[in-house]
Design brief:
The complex is a heterodimer of chains A (109) and B (120).
Chain A: E1 3-5, E2 9-13, E3 18-25, E4 31-37, E5 44-49, E6 53-57, E7 60-65, E8 70-75, E9 84-91, E10 97-99, E11 103-108
Chain B: E1 4-7, E2 10-13, E3 19-25, E4 32-38, E5 44-51, E6 57-58, E7 67-73, E8 76-81, E9 90-99, E10 105-111, E11 115-119
Parallel strand pairs in B: 2-11
Antiparallel strand pairs in B: 1-3, 3-8, 4-5, 4-9, 5-6, 7-8, 9-10, 9-11
Classes of the chains: A mainly beta (109), B mainly beta (120).
Chain lengths: 109, 120
């Protein structure tokens, strides 16, 4: 089967740094994406890693280790508006996205 | 970025009726679109891959006769929930990749705003 595991919930205060981990076990792998979803809204793209290493986009960074089937999303300088659910997703060779279990991030003042 | 729209944004229907949801790529052509279902506080579950001009590919466990998908053009895919029942109440989301000038898809999958279906 295919599975992508994430912590169910993470809490932090404004200005802090949080890391959301994702471990995956899939039949195919073409890249790891991260999406943010606010309650009632659509997922929005944050980052994509096809190769090992760190990708940085503003306050958000994403890391991938294909040998460990592991990745993480790093959020820096947290803001209240970052409170949302975050999903990792594996893109397979047919371009399908298989989503992780999701992590609910709550940022407190 | 590319824009994907869905219509309606929400719908309430009686048990036994059919509901059609439209997904459009507004500023790009999409040969492939994807349909997801999301229950409250859960992840997105891929239901099917919609291919323009051919039959949709359904994920294991998704009833193709209940969830009819038609990808009639490069900018429109429709999902029809037939004989809807309360257990079909969910958030339905479509998505698509846009193609770059080289013909390859970008890494970002663009999602529609979703359709909330409530079956009474």
């Amino acid at each position: 089967g295919q599975s992508l595991e994430q912590p169910s919930e993470v809490t932090a205060v404004e200005g802090a740094i949080v890391q959301i981990n994702c471990t995956y076990q899939t039949s195919g792998f073409y890249g790891l994406s991260w999406y943010q979803q606010h309650d009632g809204g659509a997922p929005t793209f944050l980052s994509y890693n096809a190769l090992d290493g760190l990708e940085e986009t503003g306050r958000f960074s994403s890391f991938l280790s294909r040998s460990d089937s592991y990745g993480y999303l790093l959020l820096q300088e947290l803001q209240m508006k970052d409170s949302a659910s975050y999903f990792c997703a594996v893109r397979d060779s047919t371009d399908k996205l298989i989503f992780g279990t999701g992590t609910r991030l709550q940022v407190f003042p | 970025g590319a824009v994907v729209s869905q219509h309606p944004s929400w719908v309430i229907c009686k048990s036994g009726t059919s509901v059609k949801i439209e997904c459009r790529s507004l500023d790009f052509q999409a040969t492939t679109m994807f349909w997801y279902r999301q229950f409250p506080k859960q992840s997105l579950m891929l239901m099917a891959t919609s291919n323009e001009g051919s039959k949709a590919t359904y994920e294991q466990g998704v009833e193709k006769d209940k969830f009819l998908i038609n990808h009639a053009s490069l900018t429109l895919s429709t999902l029809t929930v037939t004989s809807a029942h309360p257990e079909d109440s969910s958030f339905y989301i479509c998505s698509a990749y846009s193609l770059g000038t080289s013909g390859r898809t970008y890494n970002e999958q663009f999602f529609g705003p979703g359709t909330r279906l409530t079956v009474l």
